[in-house]
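So, can you check these tokens?
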Amino acid sequence: MAGTLIMAVNEAEASLKHAIASRFGEPLPPVGEAEDVQLMLRKFRNACLVIMGTDVSMAKSQNVDQRLWLSHTRVYGKFKAEISKQHAAQQGNKSVAWRKSLADYLIFIKDSQSFYRSLLRSLSDKHPASEGLLKVANRLRSQAPLPARPERAIQHPDHIKTALDDICCETLVHLGDLSRWRTVIQPDAAAGGFRTATGYYDLASELYPQSGIPYHQLAVLTLANRNNFKALLYFYLSLTRQVPHPEAARNLSLLVKKLKGYTIANLANTLGPAGKSASIATLRAWFVRLHTEAFEGNDSIQRMEMEKEVITRVGMVLSSGADATSTLLSISLIAIAAEYLNFSESLGSNRSNDSFHRLNLRILVELLRYVADAVDNEFREDVTSGETRPAESRIPAIVKVILPPLRVHIIWFYQNSAKLTASMRQNIPDIETTGVVHEAFAKLTSVVNTLLANYPVYDTPAAPDSGHALQEEELISGFIPLANEHTTLVWQKERLVGSKDGKRVKSDKPEWFDHMVRIRDIITWAVRIACEENSPLALDNGRIAFKQSNQPFDLDTAPAAERPHSDVSALDGGTKAAAAATASAAIHMPTPAQMPTPVHDQAALATRTPLHTKAELNWGFTPPPMTHSAYRPQDTAYPTPNAPSGRQTVTTGGTTLADGFHGHWDSFNALRNKLPQKKQFWHTDKRPQLGKTEENTSNRR
């Protein structure tokens, strides 16, 4: 049976190749009479569908899905060349031959889209235990509902699950590519085609966040739409996944080289968000210019001045009141990814990593500074006026803009806490960086204590328990530089695309709810940093203290009568046992040696095909074959840098404090009782109620 199916696939593939050669004027192979390309392609699709529906693991082992897609890309390439040649020959006039080729091309695109959507629905019907296929099929259905599922679906073996996940992710990317290809010869429908393609790529990245393939295709799409800033972000997101796109490093280098030739004024014109503040465009321009210098390992006085200019521009954007959340979040992710990947190694320099490391520190300090000032001013006004509004309604607008990128940078700070501590105490790599590290620890201490004292974090659920994905969570899920045992648990919760019907979870909470979740999460990460061995931060009477040079930091910011008096000796109890329990429950994280890294071999780079030629950007790109076991979010171990040894775990009220901020109410209530009573705004009757305002449906991109 299997041999017969494979033979049918091989015969259909050979007939299709013969038909392509006949249709597009190639020398005919020694096979029978040529037939229509569309007809032969349909026969090949049907043969592949039969074998994938009968034995999906065998189909994967024979690369049936890849062979089918490569046939589509070959037909696409032939149509592209034919239409372009006819258009050039007629000097832009629409000849009869051009119209016929265009009609055939549109039939090819529509048939291909219909087939791949049907493939997903067919596989979902045959394999009801595949959650990924079920969600995708439900998202793609239009009129007729899918058949009812059995209450207890049969669980598939691992090799079948792997094959199904591979095919599902590949097919979503193919559908995105087909939508993108369709817009090439229909400029009037480009906007709709780009939205459709983005939707498929987004869905693939949501279901399979370990894959960098969808992000690379998003970069191609945004380049075609002349959005170089977003393309830069997507290339980095592709490279920092467990399965990076093999062309992402090459194409990122080409994009950086292209942007290097732009002046600041030109960059501002090409990088600015449409219809938004000019200050955001200028910030993007200066950041891209700084990134170009650091990317190549240039550590000059000019680059240092650029770094200061970028930080100044960040402050100007925040002071202007512009909605810069997306820009700041993109800058944070690019800088963190660039530090992690350290591309300058391939250029013979080791300074780029230090440059991006210092930039990340400066960005963090700047964000913390604005949060501290804004919160202090907000609550000082209430104290002066005697007004007691609910704390949740008193999150300053500038803080709302800062919280998503600040949360990302706090996780980065936790990831690098051991390195940062050593840097501060040993003046590594230089005194200037040491000073920035010292300031970052001090600012973090001040901000966390301010947030603890003014906001009801104890009445706010932890990020994993919030019931929906935060805006930034959808981008950082699977982001290797931020992968650790805490973030992995969040990413593995299937909250990004919704419940069993496959629809995205929409928040029914008011806007302030997400901001409160972020505030609590920022405090959580600070507590985890304080629990690290040799950390300069420490827990002190319900607050966080900063110890300089291993000496206790003088906490005299509050009057003695308002200082918490609870005994903190219990924080030292059960440390070893709790740490052992945490370690045993932690997910195994591979070492950096197991991580995907940029290609540094010049011979290998020379064999890669650049993507940034105008013709290729206009006509698209063929994604590479995908490997088995690449897209299984439920049991994937995310790689991460080595965690520092001897991580401390502090207990309060029978639970670990570090994890107490991660969903355990006892630890929060223990700290809650230690705060001054006049700061406990969560008891007010004026507190907004959940579900009483419009739902927060912020878009991902």
